[in-house]
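4.2 Preliminary Data

To establish feasibility before requesting continued support, the project team ran the inverse folding procedure on a target of 439 residues. The structure was first converted into the token representation described in Section 3, and no sequence information of any kind was made available to the design step. The complete token record follows.
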């Protein structure tokens, strides 16, 4: 069939009910769409079969990961143009999207075009999902074993790969960017400033005991022990992270002050701690377990101890029961991950007994951080593919770019919530002046 791009453009515009904001280049080298726009490259007919058998975001995601579709041009611009038509990160509702697509395909005006698409797609056999797709688990969410498997899917993909993306800091959470004189000028500086801000909010002092929940590659405990003289325990469910963190700690000569464990927060029984940091970990907890998470951390703290909960948040919905986890993120990035509005997070911390004392929203900082990670990945693309797989590298590039735009568009945010296990006396231990973290 000649002019596959033109026919695909016509069908897409019929289904979407709007002009297609990108060009299409098909496998027959035909092109269609607005001149100068980013180009959606449809490399083969298999891409169409993926969309036919899984209409909506999951079909597109599988086609992207498998390399059946690609973007020629600025990825951020292409995603920004397509976001409002296909998904908005954190608020996607795949089932209604599929139903709308099927209703559109049933309209008499495009039935002929749909038949053309079926003929273009080739054999009516669903393609196998890419190997990078997470194995689907059955049974209750957020059991100890299921959480460990979910964490392994995302984090145990190779420390060398993460070094390329994250840079020397090896911090996989939102950095803290400054403005003007003295502000962070590099990703490494911004990550150091974030870690130091958390240490100051926690009021860390020499000799205190810190627990870092979801310690990653050990950057927080290293900074806290080296700069503030604390004794620290870092826990992670990733064997690869733990191995890497222990080596860093040994190389820094801090093995006598820092312990790294492969352990779930529900398995800690050697409290109390003076302070707890949880940086980019609570997104994995899930709403069914969040009350348990908050109560567990409260019980691990001494009276007067502080918790710094650094967590991504989504916008609240009019009907919270309609919330569905983004299919691409769930299948390829963070299996079983869930986002909650910041108000719910603060409320559940207080229900557990905490006194919430401060909340700092740093949404724009995460957009800047993600753009730096994407730039790192693109600059080391060949090495990233060699260390993982072409599909895995494509997953990381798409998810980080799409999330950067979601932070910029205020679809998701990130907040540092400082909470205190205030003793019965009512003395919080915080300085009277707001945001003076001397304690």
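Position-by-position output of the design step:
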């Amino acid at each position: 069939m000649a002019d596959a791009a033109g026919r695909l453009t016509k069908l897409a515009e019929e289904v979407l009910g709007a002009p297609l904001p990108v060009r299409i280049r098909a496998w027959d080298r035909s092109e269609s769409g607005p001149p100068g726009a980013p180009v959606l490259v449809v490399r083969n007919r298999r891409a169409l079969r993926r969309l036919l058998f899984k209409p909506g975001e999951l079909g597109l995601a599988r086609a992207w990961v498998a390399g059946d579709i690609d973007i020629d041009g600025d990825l951020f611009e292409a995603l920004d143009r397509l976001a409002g038509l296909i998904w908005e990160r954190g608020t996607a509702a795949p089932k209604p999207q599929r139903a709308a697509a099927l209703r559109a395909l049933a309209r008499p005006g495009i039935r002929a075009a749909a038949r053309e698409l079926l003929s273009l797609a080739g054999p009516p056999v669903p393609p196998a999902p890419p190997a990078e797709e997470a194995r689907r688990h059955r049974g209750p969410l957020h059991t100890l074993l299921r959480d460990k498997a979910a964490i392994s899917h995302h984090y145990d993909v190779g420390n060398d790969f993460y070094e390329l993306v994250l840079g020397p800091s090896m911090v996989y959470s939102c950095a803290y960017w400054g403005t003007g004189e003295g502000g962070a000028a590099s990703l490494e500086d911004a990550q150091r400033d974030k870690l130091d801000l958390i240490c100051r909010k926690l009021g860390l002092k020499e000799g205190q005991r810190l627990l870092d929940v979801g310690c990653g590659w050990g950057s927080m405990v290293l900074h806290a022990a080296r700069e503030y003289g604390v004794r620290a325990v870092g826990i992670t469910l990733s064997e690869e992270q733990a191995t890497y963190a222990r080596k860093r700690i040994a190389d820094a000569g801090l093995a006598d002050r820092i312990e790294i464990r492969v352990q779930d927060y529900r398995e800690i029984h050697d409290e109390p701690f003076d302070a707890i940091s949880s940086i980019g970990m609570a997104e994995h907890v899930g709403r069914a377990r969040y009350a348990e998470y908050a109560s567990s951390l409260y019980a691990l703290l001494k009276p007067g101890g502080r918790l710094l909960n650094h967590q991504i948040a989504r916008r609240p919905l009019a009907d919270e029961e309609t919330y569905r986890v983004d299919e691409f993120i769930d299948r390829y990035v963070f299996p079983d991950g869930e986002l909650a509005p910041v108000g719910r997070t603060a409320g559940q911390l207080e229900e557990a007994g905490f006194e919430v004392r401060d909340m700092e929203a740093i949404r724009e900082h995460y957009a800047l951080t993600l753009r730096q990670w994407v730039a790192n990945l693109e600059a080391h693309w060949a090495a990233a593919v060699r260390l993982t797989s072409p599909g895995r590298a494509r997953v990381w590039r798409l998810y980080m770019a799409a999330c950067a735009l979601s932070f910029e568009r205020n679809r998701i945010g990130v907040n540092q919530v400082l909470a205190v296990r205030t003793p019965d006396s009512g003395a919080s231990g915080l300085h009277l002046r707001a945001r003076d973290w001397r304690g």
